[in-house]
Design a protein that fits this description.
Elements (H helix, E strand, L loop, with lengths): L56 H4 L14 E4 L11 E2 L1 H7 L9 E4 L9 E4 L1 E2 L1 H9 L3 E4 L1
Parallel strand pairs: 1-3, 2-4, 3-5, 4-6
Length: 146
Amino acid sequence: MKLNELSPAPGARKARKRLGRGVGAGTGKTAGRGTKGQNSRSGGGARPGYEGGQMPIHRRLPKRGFANIFKKEFAVVNIRDLDRFEDGSIVDEAAFIQAGLVKGRRDGIKLLANGSIDRPITVKVNRISKAAKEKIESAGGTVEVL
């Protein structure tokens, strides 16, 4: 089987309805829109969420909570993820991105203590948990908080 021989199953594709192509076509003249009114005209129809003048649901429902616009969002990395780095290597933001552990722009990287480490490495992160720091230092590594 080749790509140019592929075709959809019989009956899987349906021809689109051709509107406004004469009275004999069945959908001529008003093209299935009926006569007059908002929805019969081009560009007509109410905007999304409009409920005919009734108070819309997004205004009827109570608003709750608080969104802090100054909140910092950290990319989380666990100690078990550091296994891919060699002995004595310096692991910083660039190394995390290169290894595919951190994606996208965040406010920094936080290292958590999930997992174990058995080799000495130097870690440069913005935040680190106390347990993670102890694990790295007990393995002979160093931690630098930026």
